[in-house]
Amino acid sequence: MSLPAPEMPRSPGTPGGGAGQRLRAIDTLLADRGQLFQALFLDAPIAKALVDLDGHVLVANPRMCALTGRTAEGLAGRHVDLLAHPDDPPVGDLGLQPAPGEPPLDPNLLLDGERRLRRSDGTELWVVQSHEVVRQNNGTPQFVVLSLVDVTDRRRAEEDAVRRAFMDPLTGLPNRRALTDRLRHAVALSRRRGLQVGLVHLNIDRFQAVNDALGHEAGDLLLSQFADRLRWSTRVEDTAVRLGADEFLVVAEDVEDLDGLRALADRLLSVLDEPFVVNGREITLSASVGLTLGADMTPDDLLRQAQSALTRAKADGQRARIEVHEGALSRSDVDALQLETELRHALDNDELRLFYQPIVHLADETLLGYEALIRWQHPTRGLLPPGVFLDVAENNRLTSKLGAWVLRRACLDAATWADDLRVHVNISARHLAEDGFSELVAAALEESGLPPHRLELEITESTALFAAEATLHSVAVVTDQGVTLALDDFGTGYSAITALHRLPIHTVKIDRSFVADVVTQPSTAALVHGLLQLGRGMGLQVIAEGIEDLDQAAWLLDHGCAMAQGYAFGRPAPLPSPAEVLIGEVTEAPAEDVAGELLPVPPAPAPELPRQRPPSTPEGHDVTDTGRLSARTLFDELADPED
């Protein structure tokens, strides 16, 4: 938009003029551009204001007045920082600079994107802000058109979804999902301050007897009262968490020594001195406590130590005991050290195995690919799942060696499959940030001959959110090659949405903990529905993990989920089994008819492979039709009598 120089208001910042000149400038603009101004500004469906280069409002349209709760006269002549939220840092401290070729502007005008504002009545408002510089025909900047789009409802819905995901619905305390981020923050803070983090792990004694005698409703009331007392007894810097059932944990920051942690535990236990009243009956409780204290430790190590101390406190059926983890090696600690030594030799002795779990198209069960899952064929303990040894590997820097082996083996295996099947490989944050990771991926692809678009790397939300520059560089290199990126356990971290903007995510996988309750828990169903809409709205592929029954599958299909993974479609197996191949042959219609393009266009046909599938037919799908899924015939055919 450009206007003749003689008809424009004075250049902002020049002396003299004041409100009178601003009004004359607006009159001139209205007279010469009346109809255009009416259509593009006054009648615009979003809030707009003409602002001089120094940030003072010249004129605001009716939408801007309604959005901010102020009149046009009340905004005219005022600086736009009038709308800034007082709890946010001053915009001038953010160091914003105009883009090349753009004139010097007030920093408030440069803050494009989502920001928080305050209405005239003091209420909070979230908007997406943008600005456009208006110039004369000769290019001289005259004023700025400031636009605000109200996104308050969306922002509140997102915050509410996060709160529900990380809050225990019964007690209102943070839940186990929230504990990981909170504990990681506490450990990092303790290292900077030179203090320690303390954990107080509480377990209510004989709580099951209360449930048996008074019923679960009374038990829930009792837990709520206990949580309230626990919340009131902690310091501002401490965090009380409900781990589940009758177990609670308090994360205590800035603890100087063990005596300070014991004093905190005594204060927390003092809340049990006063009897609880439930349904008119007085109930006296006691609790067993495990304590641990540390600084230069991982959150998982701290949790294990607290659990070990609590186990000793409850040993032999004793009650109201406090035990401290003093650093002595228990039998489990000795076993962990032995396991670490043996794991170092597992690679050399060819003891590791890859199992594969199918990923299918939910509407017709067409096979799309497999996720590679590591197992350890231990010479004396038998087949070990990853939960037994991956923590040992993480704590002793073996993850990179294991990750390199998994990546190479998975690519070699996938190269022998049909050329429209993909392989998903989990990558740890530590491995992704190491030098040479992108070269490792390139070498695995070159050795196996697997096209890059058939490999998808899965990372966690915390990896995406806290990715260092080395991680971002590695991801950029491998994705430029054609490898895609998946965000695993989507929805379980504090910053799920933020994580999507950190890295070029191609696929999100909804965590199995949400899928398990999607039919029985309305709040979880609402959350999963929101995650599905978010993923599809951002153009991402969405996979639901952990589907174990037909009701879950039908619900997800009805709500627009395209892809699925879980025991309902196949358990992890050493190599694709005939039963899993059958899943891909049940129907031949292309998955794209229902959910859009799920896979990149495959390259030129590969040589004949050991396992062939009939060509797909072009028939369309009904997104509400579960096909053989609803008839249960497929699972009857695949059922294992012993399973």
What features would you describe in this structure?
The chain has 643 residues and is α/β, with parallel strands linked by helices. The protein is built from 26 helices and 22 strands. An eight-stranded mixed barrel has the order 14-15-17-18-19-20-21-22, surrounded by four helices. Strands 1, 2, 3, 4, 5 and 6 form a six-stranded mixed β-sheet that branches. Mean pLDDT is 78; it is low at 1-16, 577-582 and 584-643.
What does this entry show, briefly?
The protein has about 650 residues and is of the alpha/beta class. The chain is built from 26 helices and 22 strands.
Keywords, separated by commas or semicolons:
643 residues, alpha/beta, 8-stranded mixed barrel, 6-stranded mixed sheet, 22 strands, 40% helix, disordered N terminus
Gyration radius over CA: 30 Å
Physical arrangement of strands within the biggest beta sheet: 14-15-17-18-19-20-21-22
Oligomer: single chain
> What sort of overall outline do the alpha carbons produce when their principal axes are compared?
globular
Q: Largest beta sheet, briefly?
A: 8 strands, mixed, barrel
Relative strand content: 15-25%
The structural class is alpha/beta
Q: How many helices in DSSP terms?
A: 26
Number of strands: 22
| Average pLDDT rating | 78
- Helix share bin: 40-55%
Instruction: Give the distance, in angstroms, between the N- and C-terminal Cα atoms.
Output: 71 Å
The low-pLDDT segments are 1-16, 577-582, 584-643
